[in-house]
Amino acid sequence: MKKSLKRKYAKLLIKQGVNIQKGQQLNISADVEAAEFVALLVEEAYRAGAGYVRVDWSMTQLAKLAYRHCSMKTLCDVPDWQVERAKHDSEILPARIALLCQDPDALASANPEKIARASIAASKKLKPYREAMENKHQWLVCAIPGKAWAKKMFPNDRASVAVEKLWEAILSTVNCYDDNDCIAEWDKKNETFKAKSEWLTEKQFDYLHYKSKNGTDFKCELMKESVWCGGGENTLDGVFFNPNMPTEEIFTTPKKGKCSGRLVSTMPLSVRGTLIDNFYIDFEDGKAVNWHAEKGNEALGKLITTDEGAAMLGELALVPKDSAIAESGLLYYNTLFDENASCHVAIGMGYSSCVKGFENMSLDELHELGVNDSMIHVDFMIGSDDMCITGYKDGVATPIFIDGKWAE
Ligand code: ZN
Ligand code: ZN
Fold this sequence. Notes:
36% helix, alpha+beta, Thermophilic metalloprotease-like, globular, five-stranded antiparallel beta sheet, binds zinc ion, 13 helices, nine-stranded antiparallel beta sheet
């Protein structure tokens, strides 16, 4: 990929993505494979006024070695300096970019028990600081191609060709081309998302009913205070940013403990290096009570039983089957992309920013109201070609999705 286009992409991520503020610190987490692009990103961040840019490097190979050789105890021991660092961040509120490029199956050969327990141990210790930063700083998840990831998506091509193809695919998902004003296009896109989310929020549906001939037949209540969001959002201080690039979803936080019926997955889900495929989950009184996956059933069970909240929903997201990513027909094996090809839900933590008046509520109050709490938040895809979603308010039905597309 041409360097000029990479730079244009870096600028888009810094300006439209995290919207770095003058003097603000930026933290980037990235794999060493992305080093060349990270340098561009750092340069653009300083040009845009960043006070200091910190890069937290990782390397898949080293993670694999650690999982192989370190004891469970060592892996689950979160050192004090890491806690201190999280505390420091929660005080200075840096913007954050998670830059992905890894092979989604990179850790497939590692012990899944070790991966799961280590990540739970870290989330537990760092959760208070993550919560203290919620809605107070800008963050962004975005991606560039890595070799193994590109080869997984384009197995019949040479690595260099596969990487080039993945560059083209990624840049097209974020509307970054040689000859366009991609920032203006994102502004326009954010406007459209705003109109759709406002329409849904004003409807104040009591519940949504999902139906598809693949077996999905599912009802989920919303809170009176549920707000639909999509595209960019504001920090509490009013800094507008786009937390996901790409994004095609309009989403909200449902009322926890208030759903029932069956959800059938329509795309594979890659979790901590394991692929879970062809699965369904049955809900009763808001909780997953029964599930089965043709592939990765054990991993699915582990995920749902991570903690109490992992068996309940934290997100409902609407994506039409004619979204650009869905129409490309590519499977990325990565939620950042694949969630934009299909309607999905997430088990685990709900977004408090999808609640009217959340700014003036404590986390306890939000949980009381019906926002789910968990250490995980994992999306899985349920959209299908014939998916119909109907919203009900005082018994009156309004079609939201018909045959996989927006009803209006
Ligand atoms: Zn989502
Ligand atoms: Zn999600």
